[in-house]
Amino acid sequence: MEIKNLSQTPFNIIVDCFFSAFENYFVEFPKDKFLFKNRWEMASINYSFSYGMFNRDKLVGFVLHGIENRESYLTAFNLATGVIPEYRGKKIIQQIYEYALDELKAIGVTKCKLEVIKENKTAIEVYKKIGYNIIKSYKCFGGNIEILCEVPFELKKIKFQDFNFEDKTAQSLYSWENQIATLKRGDFKCYQVLHDNNIESIFIINDQNGYLAQFDVLIESKNAWKRLFSAIHSISKEIKINNIDARLITKICQIYKFGLNNTVDQYEMEMLLD
Fold first, then answer.
1. β-pair partners for 268
2. Which Pfam families match (predicted)?
3. Which of 72, 121, 138, 247 has the greatest number of C-beta atoms within 10 Å?
């Protein structure tokens, strides 16, 4: 078997291997190739520094990397790792990383990051052996927003460049795919919720599928969270939220308060490169 970067591998071969590797996974992925093409491109995938294990011409395992400067580090974010079922148990991911790390270091990457479902204990142990450490816990949610008592709100749609997210919101608390650097490349809309002529809260959502990528109360006041969730509800009643930092107790309590359910929990893992 041979390890090669994926720069010359057709997208359809990569995504078909991805679907095969994630059959019967902890969560069900949609079988929409276009969705994953867009999602990986949003997250700054670099196929020249993403790698596959090949048995002759057959792709049997992979590590996909998004590479970008984030928080003063040139970071390789693991967008997806997988091995098709019949090739598991052969330490393919460890071998890919042994091959990849020298190349990543050579282009100046100083940090590697990934997310893994907490129940996936086998993967977590593999990542620890490679050199990753758990640094964050995330909670994911989904369902229909429940507004028991309507409150008035003023909603204003804005462009990404109209608001200084880096200064006004804690981007480091958001995961890679939910940070502004990723979202501005996707089909997301930004909204401000105004109260007493002030920007009380803000949220970013894909209004086609209800994916709520960011939401923050900027001015704590009575009914601020209710106005925020009422505004979100006006855009999409059913929503999905990935990767709320488990330390954000107030935000998590409000998510539960408005009727959403915890669907899965994840770890963020990190490895610093010398």
1. 115, 136
2. Acetyltransf_1
3. 138
* Mean pLDDT over the full length of the chain: 96
For residue 53, the model assigns a pLDDT of 98
Tell me if the domain spanning 141-265 has CATH number 3.40.630.30.
yes
Q: Please answer whether residues 85 and 79 qualify as being in contact, where contact means their C-beta atoms are separated by less than 8 angstroms.
A: no
Sequence ranges of the chain with CATH classification 3.40.630.30:
2-109, 141-265
Alpha helices (runs of H) in 150-203, residue ranges in sequence order? 165-168, 180-183
Contacts for 183-188: CB closer than 8 Å, 24+ residues apart: 183/42, 183/213, 183/214, 184/160, 185/41, 185/42, 185/44, 186/38, 186/39, 186/42, 187/38, 188/213
Tell me the pTM: 0.93
Residues of the chain with pLDDT below 70 are none
DSSP code of 155? E
Minimal CA–CA distance to 115: which of 169, 158, 174, 155? 174
C-alpha distances (whole Å) from 266 to each of 16, 116, 134, 154, 244 are: 24, 5, 10, 34, 10
The CATH number of the domain covering residues in 2-109: 3.40.630.30
What pLDDT is attached to residue 24?
81
Q: Are the C-beta atoms of 138 and 245 separated by less than 8 Å?
A: yes
Cβ(66)–Cβ(121) below 8 Å: no
pLDDT, position 243: 97
CA quadruple 101, 274, 245, 162: dihedral, nearest 10: -90
Burial class (CB in 10 A: 0-12, 13-18, 19+), 74: middle
Which residues pair with residue 54 across a beta bridge? 2, 59
